[in-house]
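Hi C.,

You asked whether I'd gotten around to modeling the 256-residue construct. I have! Everything is below, sequence then structure, no commentary in between.
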Amino acid sequence: MTWSAPLYRYYEHRLARGLPADRLPAHVGVILDGHRRFARAEGHPDYTTSYRIGMAKLEEFLTWCSLLEIPAVTAWVLSTDNLRRPPDELEPYFAVLVELLADLPGLARSLDFSLQVIGSVDLLPEELARAVKSANEAPHGRRWHVNLALGYGGRQEIVDACRSLVADLLASGVTEEELAERIDIDALSTHLYSSTLPDPDLVIRTSGEARLSGFLLWQAAYAECVFVDPYWPAFRRVDFLRALRDYARRERRFGR
């Protein structure tokens, strides 16, 4: 233990104690960015170690959210753009994601959250798609909710929602002439991957990148964004508490 560890614990405690409970977000989105850069910075011979540290950090992050009684979390762990990376980068990550999906149902029961994996599962390799199916079907908790965005793209979600809405309208007997009039914001919102959750209040992205890259493209229209410098595997509880403090201090305008 270094001399600074007690100071960090004191600072964390002070930050947590100062957070106003009535100004915490109801839904936090988090973009887990920076695994490969973390691996290079730490001198890891391959990316597997960094990926495992990052997924362990996600489980730790969910514990932090549970203690703060955050009602909903959406964590973006794999994008549709990521799927175009070289196999030597993707295959180790796929293997680590399979491990994560095997662990999450147990964590869900322990922390009492329901779990849903969202995204284009049909684009995933067979073993990972099976792991998604098993995780979605496993017994979970009920107190709060976690989305794992895997093979997810914000534009693709909107396309899928449009297709689903149109299919439902046609199946209900709506004519082609009436179709356009029945497509509106409320109707489309009910066909998003997680239509039962409130829109995210806060989106956090690690690794210093100041963009959302299509994450929850529809839902995050009025979300507050916090961009932090640490790579995801190095993300600390103090970084999370600072993000929550910054969020609590902001005046939300919702476009007005």
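If it helps when you're writing up: Strands lie at 27-31, 72-79, 113-118, 144-152, 202-205, 224-227.

Thanks,
B.
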